[in-house]
Amino acid sequence: MNIREFLGIELPIIQAPMAGVQDSGLAVAVSVAGGLGSLACAMLNIDEIHAELTAIKSQTDKPVNINFSCHASPVPDPERESKW
Hints:
The chain is mainly α. The chain has helices at about 5, 25-30, 45-60, 80; strands spanning about 35-40, 65.
């Protein structure tokens, strides 16, 4: 099985999720074109996620990646930063 078969897409293209600079429109366009569209959800609240997913589902039935960033914010370290 290749990546296209595994993901259910026509083209071996995966759109990078770009938190803060894209919405469902780009994810839909990529999916409709045959790639795997992606929606970055890290900066969205639950109502915004719901609205974006509703928009996606109303425009395509093709696969879309829903991406969440799960990491801790860096802790400032004045000693480490003074070395630069």
